[in-house]
């Protein structure tokens, strides 16, 4: 249930109440005794899903724009049986949705402060490999709101709101990358970080420099969940969505890539950020339109429909281009994982093979990363061979191991064998 309040400007009471009577709207009137611009308040009880229909009907009948409209939530209604419950689909009205969207795009000073703080937290969490710290940064980060604000602005025909949402997203991403890059430059080479730190080897960073096609599916689903939480006024879901499709951590990784001079880190993490942002915007835009949100004025409907279509096509095209990178990362990641798996499996089969003097082989390290796949670098495998006491191996052991591993993996491999004479208790 909603309570729609119409603040009636001075001199318009009779005309407005006549309009309500003509539309057969049930209402109550409260006199305004202050010396302000309004002389009365008309309160109209409306079912949740009927707010849009009632306001559209009143506007079509001549409701002026100078009448201030306030929509309030009602905890319970103990009378009024026979209200239009069949119109209650659980969605916020157009005016309520726009008001929520405005709240999701805070003042720039507030937005910038929260974003810088969340970027600092995320960068520190990435460098210390702290998942809990990164989750904290996700909750603080205000980037999800402007994405929804931009989409709401487009579908309701509010150009200023749409532009503000897009502007905040763009500035927010640049601010996040810059903050992380500056902090990375300040910390690099200090006692706070290990000497010669390779940021790509940090698990929390590595997770964000190897985005796959699953990242796109996650972003599309998160965009849909964000819209449902917004239109059905379930704010707590937005927190979960913000964590699921976090925008600040991968943007912070891109900043660290700049600080460490790692173009591959910048490319892959930057791709993940853009895919997330674009997928959220696309899903929100399309889903809001499908749900049925439209501009107030019917004469703006065709223009808004064209804008929704144009933006959807542009965003979809950008996602398609970025998907090429995701496909490349997916295939490259599969290739590196496949080589590691095949090496481990073959070494297990070789252990105890009489051809290798009953040696036991263990994979110590497989140096084969994503950039090695596309730069043509040969995988480097370090193998430890346990030898029984008194056993000896020929000088060609490394070559024989390499031949077996190359046969198993189907690729050229450089092999280093570390020999260890082992005794085991009986």
Note the beta-strand portion.
Answer: 5-15%
Order of the strands making up the biggest sheet: 2-3-1-4
- Number of DSSP strands? 7
Calculate the terminal CA-CA distance, rounded to whole Å.
79 Å
What are the segments in which pLDDT stays under 50 over at least 5 consecutive residues?
Answer: 80-88
- Radius of gyration over all CA atoms, rounded: 31 Å
N-to-C order of helices and strands: EHEEHEHHHHHHHHHHHEHEHE
Shape: elongated
Q: Write down the overall mean pLDDT.
A: 85
The domain count comes to 3
Structural class from helices and strands?
alpha+beta
Reported for the largest beta sheet, the result is: 4 strands, antiparallel
Q: Number of DSSP helices?
A: 15
Percent of residues in helices comes to 55-70%
Describe the model.
This protein has 426 residues and is of the alpha+beta class. It is built from 15 helices and seven strands. The chain has three domains: 2-90, Alpha-Beta Plaits; 97-296; 335-421, GMP Synthetase, Chain A, domain 3, CATH 3.30.300. It has helices spanning 13-22, 51-60, 94-103, 108-127, 131-140, 144-155, 159-187, 203-206, 213-231, 235-244, 248-260, 263-291, 301-350, 370-375, 397-409, and strands at 2-9, 28-31, 38-46, 68-73, 360-367, 380-387, 414-421. α11 runs antiparallel to α12 (263-291). This is TIGR00341 family protein.
């Amino acid at each position: 249930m909603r309570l729609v309040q119409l603040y009636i400007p001075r001199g318009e009471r009779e005309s407005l109440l006549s309009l309500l009577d003509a539309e057969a709207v049930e209402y109550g009137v409260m006199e305004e005794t202050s010396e302000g611009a309004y002389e009365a308040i008309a309160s109209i009880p409306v079912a949740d899903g009927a707010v849009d229909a009632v306001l559209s009907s009143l506007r079509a009948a001549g409701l002026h724009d100078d009448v201030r409209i306030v929509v309030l939530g009602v905890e319970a209604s103990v009378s009024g049986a026979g209200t239009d419950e069949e119109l209650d689909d659980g969605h916020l009205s157009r005016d309520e949705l726009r008001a929520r969207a405005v709240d999701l795009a805070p003042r720039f000073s507030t937005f910038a402060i929260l974003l810088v703080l969340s970027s600092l937290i995320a960068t520190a969490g990435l460098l210390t490999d702290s998942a809990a710290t990164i989750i904290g940064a996700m909750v603080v980060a205000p980037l999800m709101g402007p994405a929804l604000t931009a989409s709401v602005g487009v579908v309701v025909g509010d150009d200023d709101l749409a532009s503000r949402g897009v502007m905040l997203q763009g500035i927010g991403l640049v601010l996040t990358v810059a903050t992380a890059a500056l902090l990375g430059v300040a910390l690099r080479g200090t006692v706070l970080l290990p000497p010669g730190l390779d940021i790509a080897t940090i698990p929390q960073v590595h997770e964000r420099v190897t985005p796959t096609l699953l990242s796109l599916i996650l972003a599309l689903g998160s965009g849909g969940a964000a819209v449902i939480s917004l239109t059905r006024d379930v704010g707590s879901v937005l927190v979960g969505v913000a964590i699921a499709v976090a925008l600040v951590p991968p943007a912070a990784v891109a900043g660290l890539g700049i600080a460490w001079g790692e173009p591959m880190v910048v490319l892959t993490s930057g791709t993940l950020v853009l895919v997330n942002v674009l997928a959220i915007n696309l899903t929100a835009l399309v889903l809001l339109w499908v749900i049925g949100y439209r501009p107030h004025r019917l004469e703006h409907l065709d223009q808004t429909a064209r804008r929704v279509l144009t933006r959807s096509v542009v965003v979809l095209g950008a996602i398609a281009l970025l998907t090429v990178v995701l496909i490349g990362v997916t295939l490259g990641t599969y290739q590196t994982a496949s080589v590691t798996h095949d090496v481990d499996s073959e070494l297990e089969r070789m252990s105890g093979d009489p051809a290798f003097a009953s040696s036991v082989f263990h994979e110590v390290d497989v140096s084969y990363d994503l950039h090695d796949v596309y730069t043509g670098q040969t995988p480097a495998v370090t193998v430890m061979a346990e030898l029984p006491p008194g056993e000896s191996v020929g000088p060609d052991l490394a070559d024989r191991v390499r031949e077996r591993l190359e046969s198993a993996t189907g690729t050229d491999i450089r092999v280093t064998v570390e020999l260890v004479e082992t005794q085991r208790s009986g």
